[in-house]
Automatic annotation (TrEMBL):
Residues 330-390 form the CzcB-like C-terminal circularly permuted SH3-like domain. Residues 102-245 form the CzcB-like barrel-sandwich hybrid domain. GO terms for molecular function: transition metal ion binding; transmembrane transporter activity. This is Efflux transporter periplasmic adaptor subunit. CzcA and CzcB together would act in zinc efflux nearly as effectively as the complete czc efflux system (CzcABC). The CzcB protein is thought to funnel zinc cations to the CzcA transport protein.
Length: 402
């Protein structure tokens, strides 16, 4: 009720009281005065209630009044919603594994006893670095066999040269020369055989001298498993060390048959690890042609460069395989989307602040979200810092509810 109307009403009632007092006296005057005061009080309460209802309605509409200084202080950044290409993808849970092409099982080539171990578990080693020394009777036997074969060859070669000269000089028979040549050839074969027995120790195993041989690193890597201790008896079935080059790792994940047509070799894959807050892009390097008996999925592999060693084998990751791309008419960053009253909402910039606008979402990819309904291209919305506006809107709604 308007305050002027209240004054007129009070004046009218006072006039009526004055006229009535002539007939009824002082008691009637007091009754009418009290009634006028009550009418005025009810009118004031009605006006205050109407104002409160107006403020509550404004809060429900999602309007927030903020100056430019307040927006800057709150760290709110504005972006313009617009058309954008959205890369669609299929998400899969994956795991970081050793690159099996750069993982070696270093094993003893002959039985023996471990004399010393020079590396520890988890240690980085260089190609050719000493890992362990093993003593073996078999090594001693092979060296003796090689030495004997070398001496027999020397003797056979000397005999052959002498018999050749005698035969050419017509002093000895040809049969003696042929026997000497055959003996020389047999000695050469015996030496080659002995040398081949020793050569099996090449590569990651190096023979030193006597009855000892060394295990050495075949390439730069990390000792990921170690199963040797000094004094331990080992044979060719013992798994002494496992070395892996962690500068490159694999990410593997399973794909069901219905999605195999969308996952092909060469497709881009975004690998992310929430625990590390890290993300990297690779390509599908291998798609298995067989389905696992337990999982009934095909194994897909992505090769990742890992120069800093951050992607550790055993880490669970998310793999998003790019399958297609589409042109979204309106798209905004994911940071612009907040949930208000269980609805996806963006905060649209207005002349005096922001307005909460419910929207419908479409595809998501690369940190962008497609808006299919509720927002037009070219409109400015809050991106980074939009959660501050959601918090302020919640406070305003709580205050109005009281």
């Amino acid at each position: 009720m308007n305050k002027k109307l209240i004054v007129v009403a009070v004046a009218t009632l006072a006039l009526g009281i004055g006229i009535g007092s002539i007939r009824t006296g002082n008691s009637s005057i007091e009754a009418h005065a009290n009634e006028a005061a009550e009418h005025a009080e009810h009118a004031e309460h009605a006006e205050n209630g109407a104002a409160a209802e107006g403020e509550h309605a404004a809060g429900e509409e999602g309007h927030l009044t903020l100056s430019n200084e307040q927006i800057t202080a709150a760290g709110i950044q504005l972006i313009e919603a617009g058309a954008q290409s959205i890369n669609l993808g299929l998400p899969f849970p994956g795991e970081v594994r050793f690159d099996e092409d750069r993982t070696a099982h270093v094993v003893p080539r002959v039985p023996g006893v471990v004399e010393s171990v020079s590396v520890n578990l988890g240690q980085s080693v260089k190609k050719g670095q000493l890992l362990a020394v093993i003593s073996s009777q078999q090594i001693s036997d092979q060296r003796s066999e090689q030495a004997a074969a070398q001496r027999r060859l020397t003797l056979a070669r000397t005999t052959y040269e002498r018999e050749k000269q005698l035969w050419e000089s017509k002093i000895s028979a040809e049969q003696d020369f042929l026997q000497a040549r055959q003996a020389l050839q047999e000695a050469e074969i015996a030496l080659n055989n002995a040398q081949q027995k020793i050569s099996v120790l090449s590569g990651s195993v190096v023979a030193t001298g006597g009855n000892r041989y060394e295990l050495r690193a075949p390439f730069d890597g990390v000792v990921v498993e170690k199963h040797l201790t000094p004094g331990e008896v080992v044979d060719v079935t013992s798994n002494a060390f496992i070395l892996s080059d962690l500068s490159r790792v694999w990410v593997t994940f399973g794909v069901s048959p219905k999605d195999l047509t969308k996952v092909q070799v060469g497709k881009p894959v975004t690998i992310s690890a929430p625990e590390l807050n890290a993300e990297v892009v690779g390509n599908v390097a291998y798609v298995g042609s067989l389905l696992g008996e337990q999982t009934r999925t095909a194994t897909v592999r992505v090769t990742l460069e890992n120069p800093q060693g951050a992607w550790r084998p055993g880490l669970f990751v998310n793999a998003l395989v790019a399958t297609d791309s589409r042109e979204a008419r309106v798209a905004v960053p994911e940071t612009a989307i907040q949930t208000v009253e269980d609805k996806p909402t963006v905060f649209v910039r207005t002349d005096d602040g922001f307005k909460a606008q419910a929207v419908e979402l479409g595809s998501r990819a690369d940190g962008q979200v497609e808006i299919t309904k509720g927002l037009e291209s070219g409109v400015q919305v809050a991106a980074a810092g939009s959660y501050v506006l959601k918090s302020e809107l919640g406070k305003a709604s709580a205050e109005h509810s009281h």
